[in-house]
Amino acid sequence: MIKLHDLYFKPFISEKEIDSTVQRMVDEVAADIKEEVPVFVGVLNGSFMFVSDFVKKYPKPCEVTFIKLASYEGVKSTEDIERLIGLTQDLTGRIVVILEDIIDTGNTLEEIHRIFENENVKELKIATLFHKPEAYKKDFKLHYIGIDIPKKFIVGYGLDYDGLGRDLPEVYQLKTTQHMTNFVLFGPPGAGKGTQANFLKETYNLVHISTGDVFRNNIKNETALGMLAKSFMDKGELVPDQVTIDMLNAEVEKNAGANGFIFDGFPRTNAQAKALDELMDNKDSQINAMIALEVDDEVLVTRLLDRGKTSGRPDDADEQIIRNRIKEYYKKTAILKEYYMAQDKYCGVDGVGSISEITERLIKVIDRL
Ligand code: IMP
Ligand code: MG
Fold first, then answer.
1. From the alpha carbon of 104, which atom of ligand 1 is closest?
2. CB within 6 Å of ligand 1 — which residues?
3. Ligand nearest, relative to CA of residue 109
4. Among 13, 203, 236, 307, which has the highest number of CB atoms less than 10 A from its own CB?
5. pLDDT per residue over 314-345, tens digit each?
6. Is 114 annotated as ligand-binding?
């Protein structure tokens, strides 16, 4: 992901794909032109990289020149008229191939056709590296098209967002969801995960998605997914990951305006972690970190036994049960720790201390995400 000015962009078209596309276009053009020497006309500024790579690959002699769109003030001071400048040489009888970085609405192309009307060229062909078919509103033929792309704003390989991004060798697409802070929160029983999640969601305006709660609510409200989940549970089977993912997806969609999400109780397996990555990717977002509260076993046992004295929860009263739960936690999360470590996203946070001390440590980690 990259940030230009105030906006975030994600990788979209690789250098390699651009390179093979340019090569393909060169082959098509060269095959059509045969023996004549064409004049390639790049439209500045965006096309400079495309033109450069294109003519380097072009197998036969050719001429290269550039034109540029310039804004002039219109008759009324409010209206801008765009004119192409830079066309100085005589193109009478020549084969001219316009090299465009991108054709969007086709307005620029209309202007190109207008100025070439009186040039008496032998042929005027249009080649564009990128094309947005859904945005194109003109009838001019596009002779060579590199890659059709959706009607989304892109940068890189000559294309800019307000001056930035032209220098990037690959193409990025504007993220429809801007920066969010999403993390999965882990902690052994007694680590104070619930308490901390509550503070963090207030501090950062995040939505806390506790998978257990999501399940219970779906079943209680008899949603389609809830009933589906229940049908597996009633048979004593595990609820398939896809059902859980669909529930989480609905939760994420319900809170589309959130600054981010705290996932709690999910994922538990590698497959689920991958599914969660995909879910976030579909939302043009990502999991930024696995944050795990780290507390020494003996401290946990003492805390939970203390809690058991007042809460009356039977599973908090038996030391052996507590130790087993802690062991179980480490057994299950080891895999996830590895998964997120491989993505450089694992953040262990010391969970021993006062509640506010631990919150401070978490805030330090989250502020860096
Ligand atoms: P058109 O005149 O609407 O076809 O748009 C042509 C010009 O708009 C291009 O030469 C670019 O300068 C700009 N443009 C259109 N779409 C994009 C984009 O996705 N990223 C950056 N510039 C764009
Ligand atoms: Mg252009």
1. 4
2. 46, 102-109, 153-155, 159
3. 1
4. 13
5. 777 788 988 998 998 998 888 999 999 999 99
6. no
Name the nearest CA neighbour of 126 among 93, 164, 99, 155.
Answer: 99
Nearest to 38 by CA among 61, 19, 59: 61
pLDDT(36) > 80: yes
Over the stretch 251-278, which tens digit does the pLDDT of each residue have? 999 987 788 999 998 998 999 999 999 9
Of 51-55, 107-111, 184-188, 316-320, the least confident? 316-320
Distance CA 266, CA 209 (A): 9
Q: How many of the other CB atoms lie within 10 Å of CB of 342?
A: 9
Confidence (pLDDT) at 369: 86
CB count within 10 Å of CB 60 equals: 11
Quick one: pLDDT at residue 77?
45
359 labelled binding-site residue: no
Residue from 69, 102, 152 to probe ligand 1 pocket by mutation (most atoms less than 8 Å from CB): 102
Domain range 181-367, CATH architecture: 3-Layer(aba) Sandwich (3.40)
Mean pLDDT of 39-60: 97
Say if residue 368 carries a ligand binding annotation: no
Ligand number nearest CA of 156 is 1
Helices and strands (H and E) in the chain: how many: 11, 15
Nearest CA to ligand 1 atom 20: 154
194 is known to lie in a ligand binding site = yes
Structure tokens belonging to residue 21: 């596309």
For the chain, residues classed under CATH 3.40.50.2020 are 2-174
CATH 3.40.50.2020 matches 2-174: yes
pLDDT of residue 248: 94
Is the CB of residue 102 less than 8 Å from the CB of residue 126? no
CATH 3.40.50.300, the chain: domain bounds: 181-367
